[in-house]
Specification:
The protein is an alpha/beta fold. The chain contains 15 helices and 13 strands.
Length: 368
């Protein structure tokens, strides 16, 4: 019986995040293997519900403290090395981009799941200079420790694999494996009545966040410039994502939806004329494949992992070129997707579905 440990912190802190979805998918895949026992390790409040399924340190801390550098270092270099050896873990999978447990007094295979490298490759990822100094220092240290100590590096794309090699040297290429993200089939979700969302009859869609790399200001500015020449815009994201001034300028042509259920999100994907992904950088690009699984056409920014997850001839523009974006918007504004195009999207998305993901996880686990 092999014992597999999984870093469960992303799920405990943000259970609906993209990374958490992937961690849960890996857990479900590994649970299907005979002679494998999976154990979870996390951190958080004394009353956190995950304490029923995962091992936590004694005592408790707030969820905001879990992600702070000093607590991460303590968890990864004091708590995990002791408890993993005590539990006789054979393979441990880090899932928070870094955090390989060390030093160890026992033999253990360590897998570092590198979802992206943006904390060290992009600027302006933190709200203040102080936070940036603290977190940048931690991430630079932790990523390099992961590249140095891990027996395997998992990445969601060839783009991220090449970035690992560029940053950490050619030696990491021999232990890097691509594990594409698992994508839920939104066409298979039971439909619900979404009249309360008041979706327009024809709209473009963004599923995004406030991170600078998402390139929302450029997209929104260009879309506003074109006015009624382009469809209404629906944005799925957090409150406050669009400034009051931009909302006023757009009027009823812009809708911001927050805190959607999976069924509501499925309805939004299905009803969209096209999903846009204008990101400057993506390690994978979940919304692109989620939309395609619902039969919705997409348009992307070139230059990151988005290039490799879409079909050939997908409409694309240079991420930092408002002129290219403007021309592409004009070109696609009147396009009505055909049934053939929608079917092709759904077929393409199948290569990233839960079954394909599970098969790849089992293939990787076969070497343990």
């Amino acid at each position: 019986m092999k014992r597999i440990g999984i870093d469960w912190r992303p799920v405990s802190v943000q259970p609906v995040s993209g990374i958490s979805k992937q961690v849960c998918a890996v857990l479900e895949a590994l649970k299907t293997l005979p002679n494998f026992e999976v154990m979870l390790y996390s951190d958080g409040p004394i009353n956190h519900p995950d304490r029923l399924v995962a091992t936590f340190p004694a005592g408790g801390i707030s969820l905001t403290q879990v992600v702070r550098p000093f607590r991460r270092l303590w968890f990864e270099h004091r708590f995990l090395p002791r408890i993993l050896c005590q539990d006789q873990i054979d393979v441990f999978i880090t899932t928070a981009n870094c955090g390989v447990p060390a030093p160890l007094d026992c033999h253990m295979r360590r897998v570092a799941w590198v979802h992206d490298l943006f904390p060290i490759t992009l600027k302006n990822q933190q709200p203040s200079l102080k936070a940036s100094l603290h977190y940048q220092s931690y991430y630079h240290y932790a990523y390099r420790m992961a590249a140095w100590l891990a027996d395997e590096l998992w990445t969601p794309s060839q783009f991220t694999s090449k970035e690992c090699e560029r940053l950490f040297g050619e030696g990491v290429a021999t232990k890097t494996q691509v594990l594409h993200n698992a994508v839920r089939n939104y066409a298979a979700i039971q439909p619900v009545n979404c009249h309360h969302l008041d979706l327009p009859p024809c709209y473009w869609l963004l599923v995004t966040s406030a991170e600078p790399r998402k390139n929302l200001p450029l997209f929104l500015h260009t879309w506003l410039e074109l006015g009624d020449a382009v469809p209404t815009l629906v944005i799925v994201g957090p409150q406050g994502l669009v400034s009051a001034a931009k909302s006023k300028q757009a009027g009823t042509r812009l809708r911001l939806l927050t805190n959607l259920s999976e069924a509501e999100l499925a309805a939004v994907y299905t009803g969209a004329n096209r999903l846009w992904m204008p990101s400057i950088a993506e390690g994978f690009g979940l919304p692109v494949i989620e939309a395609m699984s619902a039969g919705t056409l997409v348009a992307i920014a070139k230059g990151s992992a988005l290039d490799e997850i879409v079909p050939p001839n997908t409409p694309a523009f240079a991420a930092e070129s408002p002129d290219e974006l403007r021309q592409l918007m004009k070109k696609l504004a009147g396009h009505e997707p055909s049934q053939e195009e929608q079917t092709a999207c759904m077929n393409w998305a199948h290569r990233f579905d839960s079954q394909a993901f599970r098969q790849r996880v089992l293939e990787l686990a076969g070497s343990w």
